[in-house]
């Protein structure tokens, strides 16, 4: 999958895809006005650390769940995966199903109770309780680095979108949007970020849902769309999820083993179960049941996202009167690139007003992603780096002030790091490079700590470090010698980019787990009384048996799991 | 949301914005109906602006009514 963005493209692109009218501009301006208004309104409710960093731990399941999924639904994700779908077909939809749903349900039912019961404020906070300060420092610093880098990527993607689609000045887009995020998150803290994410969730869906609806009307439904794609691109399979994955001979060049174990296990569980940006949202729920139900609500909507991301990419193959090309070819020929498929579909179907709503949806996607990054960064910096390493004893008000400044700092650092993106061949590949370094090994460390009481503090530290280093060296090896991908991805036919990221994640997780287990067997575990509330078998998890069936998280998790299986069979 | 601190519910903000957006988009759709622009979008005969605008007004109206400040 590719979403390549290079400086020359940004600086020289003469074209723009659409022109907005006064109504469209008014819609965008109203959106900015409202998110700032919510930020200022929430400021008076964010006076304590609990308010600012954990939204008072009083949110309902719906708010926590929609925010949980909205923080994941950035503009980078929407544009990148729609582009990837045009290029590689429905295979990219695995990102929303096998590479999301099992992990989210595992988080809801297995891991969330430990995060919630130990009353920690962050995932590195849990790591500190379970393994001690050195492992917390390693996980917190790596998370903080990853967060500002990811935030920079998101910011850059948004600016490019605005430049290419609307012809807006790239600096104008970066500064207006990022300062808006900085103001509303610094003012109202996590509660403001979450409330705006819920608003953004509605705008993203209502702004993008019209594309698949009208698109399917145009093609005569799903069967009509598939027939058109087959007629336009004979001999290529763009509309089956699993059928072509028995070999590497498919558009993504990935075998089903890589999809299931690399993408569906290592990357997916790493992201959904240990990325604090995401988990922070559901940790704000008013009680454990709400946190679990909120997570399951998030899983349901994640499963539905292909409607507004994957389907427009496929519809592009069916209805666009010209073929999109890769970014380098687009630069040479002036043709439209894969990356423009979502805006092209927006322009195709959306007239005055609807266009403004669609553009607002893309901006909202960017802002929710960035707010997620900076609010999580502020929490981890303040409680997991600043407090233990620089100032252990300070007032609550001091830490809240630090959180506000840190939010602004996070935004400015993100602006700076955005420029790092330019030297990489693909922005999503880059995101995955950074992500695989840090988050995938974290999953092994945390899940072993939660489910195996024998795991020792030394094993937690060395396992995490070994996983990060393994990932880094594998990446470096392939970068220096691209033919090494045949060893990393287990086949000479595997492609650079998506495939080697997926397999690198798998190796990183294996190294992490093996080192953690081996070191555990040779070192001394913590006494049982220090592990209460942190480890399976030593933690009393509240029973939900007294709730009626429809109020139990397990019921809705089962419904989502059934939907997941059915969808995979339908689109096999 | 907390009852003890009396926030205005986020659902009310969302509903309000959707109503305003719905009215604007519906209005734009009606205008296009009588004064069609030069560059028509695909499937323009569906008049998506009109029914999508109405949908936004209905969804937004439900949220505004259900979560307006002062309503118990």
Indicate the mean pLDDT of chain A: 83
Q: Which whole number gives the mean pLDDT of chain B?
A: 85
Distance between the termini of chain A: 20 Å
Task: Find the count of extended strands of chain A (DSSP E, 2+ residues).
Answer: 0
Pairing-aware structural class of the strands and helices of chain B? mainly alpha
- Helices of chain B, by number, come to 2
The percentage of residues in β strands of chain A lies in under 5%
Q: β content of chain B, as a range?
A: under 5%
User: What gyration radius of chain A follows from the Cα positions, in whole Å?
Assistant: 23 Å
By DSSP, the count of extended strands of chain B is: 0
Biggest beta sheet summary of chain A = none
Keyphrases for this structure?
heterodimer; A: 572 residues; mainly alpha; 71% helix; B: 72 residues; 2 helices; 62% helix; rod-shaped
Overview of this protein structure:
- The complex is a heterodimer of chains A (572) and B (72).
- Chain A is mainly α and 572 residues long.
- Chain A is built from 24 helices and no strands.
- With 72 residues, chain B is mainly α.
- Chain B is 62% helix and 0% strand.
- Chain B is rod-shaped and about 50 Å long.
- The A-B interface holds A 23, 26-27, 30-31, 34, 38, 41, 45, 56, 58-60, 63, 195, 198-199, 202-203, 206, 210, 214, 217-218, 319, 347-354, 356-357 and B 1-2, 5, 7-8, 10, 13-14, 17-18, 20-21, 24-29, 31-32, 37, 40-44, 46, 48-49, 52-53, 56, 59.
């Amino acid at each position: 999958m590719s979403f390549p963005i290079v400086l020359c493209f940004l600086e020289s692109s003469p074209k723009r895809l659409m022109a907005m009218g006064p109504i469209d501009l008014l819609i965008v301006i109203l959106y900015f006005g409202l998110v700032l208004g919510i930020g200022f309104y929430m400021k008076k409710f964010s006076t304590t650390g609990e308010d600012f960093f954990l939204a008072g731990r009083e949110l309902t399941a719906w708010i926590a769940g929609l925010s949980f999924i909205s923080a994941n639904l950035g503009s980078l994700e929407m544009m990148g995966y729609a582009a990837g779908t045009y290029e590689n077909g429905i295979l990219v939809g695995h990102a929303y199903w096998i590479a999301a749903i099992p992990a989210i349900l595992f988080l809801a039912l297995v891991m969330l109770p430990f995060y919630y019961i130990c009353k920690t404020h962050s995932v590195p906070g849990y790591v500190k309780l379970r393994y001690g300060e050195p492992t917390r420092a390693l996980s917190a610093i790596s998370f903080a680095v990853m967060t500002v880098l990811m935030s920079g990527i998101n910011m850059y993607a948004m600016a490019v979108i605005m430049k290419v689609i609307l012809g807006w000045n790239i600096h104008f887009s970066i500064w207006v949007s990022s300062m808006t995020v900085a103001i509303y998150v610094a003012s109202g803290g996590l509660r403001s970020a979450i409330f705006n994410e819920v608003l953004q969730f509605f705008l993203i869906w209502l702004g993008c849902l019209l594309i698949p609806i009208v698109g399917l009307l145009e093609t005569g439904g799903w069967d009509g769309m598939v027939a058109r794609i087959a007629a336009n691109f004979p001999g290529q399979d763009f509309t089956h999820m699993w059928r072509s994955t028995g070999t590497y001979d498919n558009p993504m060049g990935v075998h089903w083993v890589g999809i299931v174990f690399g993408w569906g296990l290592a990357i997916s569980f790493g992201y959904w179960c240990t990325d604090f940006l995401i988990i922070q949202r559901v940790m704000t729920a008013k009680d454990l049941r709400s946190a679990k139900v909120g997570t399951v609500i998030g899983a349901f909507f994640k499963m539905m996202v292909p409607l507004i991301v994957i389907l427009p990419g496929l519809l592009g193959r069916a209805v666009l009167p010209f073929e999109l090309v890769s970014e380098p070819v687009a630069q040479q020929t002036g043709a439209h690139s894969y990356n423009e498929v979502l805006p092209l579909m927006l322009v195709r179907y959306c007239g005055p007003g609807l266009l403004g709503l669609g553009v607002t949806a893309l901006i909202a996607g960017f802002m929710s992603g960035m707010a997620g990054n900076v609010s999580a960064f502020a929490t981890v910096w303040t409680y997991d780096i600043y407090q233990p390493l620089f100032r252990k004893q300070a007032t609550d008000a001091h830490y809240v002030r630090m959180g506000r400044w840190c939010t602004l700092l996070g935004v400015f650092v993100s602006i700076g790091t955005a420029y790092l993106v330019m030297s990489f061949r693909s922005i999503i590949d880059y995101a995955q490079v950074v992500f695989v370094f840090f988050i995938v090994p974290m999953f092994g460390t945390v899940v072993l700590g939660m489910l195996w009481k024998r795991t020792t503090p030394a094993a937690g530290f060395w396992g995490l470090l070994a996983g990060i280093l393994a990932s880094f060296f594998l990446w470096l090896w392939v970068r220096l010698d691209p033919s090494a991908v045949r060893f990393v991805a287990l086949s000479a036919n595997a492609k650079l980019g998506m495939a080697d990221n997926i397999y690198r994640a798998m190796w990183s997780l294996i190294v992490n787990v093996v080192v953690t287990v081996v070191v555990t067997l040779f070192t001394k575990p913590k006494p049982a009384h220090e592990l209460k509330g942190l480890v399976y078998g030593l933690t009393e998890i509240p029973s939900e048996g007294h709730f009626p069936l429809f109020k139990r998280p397990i019921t809705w998790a089962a419904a989502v799991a059934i939907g997941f299986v059915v969808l995979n069979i339908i689109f096999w | 949301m907390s009852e003890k601190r009396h926030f205005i519910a986020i659902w009310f903000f969302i509903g309000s914005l959707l109503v305003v957006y719905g009215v604007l988009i519906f209005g734009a759709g009606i205008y296009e109906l009588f004064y069609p622009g030069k560059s028509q979008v695909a499937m323009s005969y569906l008049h998506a602006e009109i029914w999508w605008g109405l949908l936004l007004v209905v969804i937004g109206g439900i949220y505004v009514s259900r979560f307006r400040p002062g309503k118990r």
